[in-house]
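User: What would this chain look like folded?
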Amino acid sequence: MSSSFRLLPEAVRRASCADKPAILAELAQVFSNAYAFEEETVHDALTERETLGSTGFGRGVAMPHARLDCVDQPVATLIHLDRDVDFDAADGIPVRLVLGLVSPTDSGVQHLHALAEMSRLTRDERVLHQLFEAQSEEELYTIIANSGLRDAA
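Assistant: Here's the prediction, encoded as structure tokens.
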């Protein structure tokens, strides 16, 4: 199955964050390290998108996303937080998993398909439970890879 976004093993991280701003900063750093994007540019775009409304998806998952000119295809990150963090999710449940997405500025439908694919992944109870219980970055990546979402390099 071909994925609508790219997720590299180095874009998967376990992290400790105290609040939503710290999560967005962590995401920007992961995008910068894994995909060689300018960290400040990614952080500004994610923060700006978050001001439009929380990307707290629900059920302990957040999906911060943005569009940037420097991106040629949708790319993702996955952060497993070491504790629940309030993210202003509609269901009020704090987040433990953060799936970040950055897409090209002109990728309207492609961006939406990538978000939908991430959403389907987290709606699968079995996969979601495995992600919550994962003990390492390697295990997190393997769960995603085995779920049918593959690195679409």
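Strands lie at 6-15, 56-58, 61-62, 65-68, 75-85, 95-104. If you want, I can go into more detail on any region.
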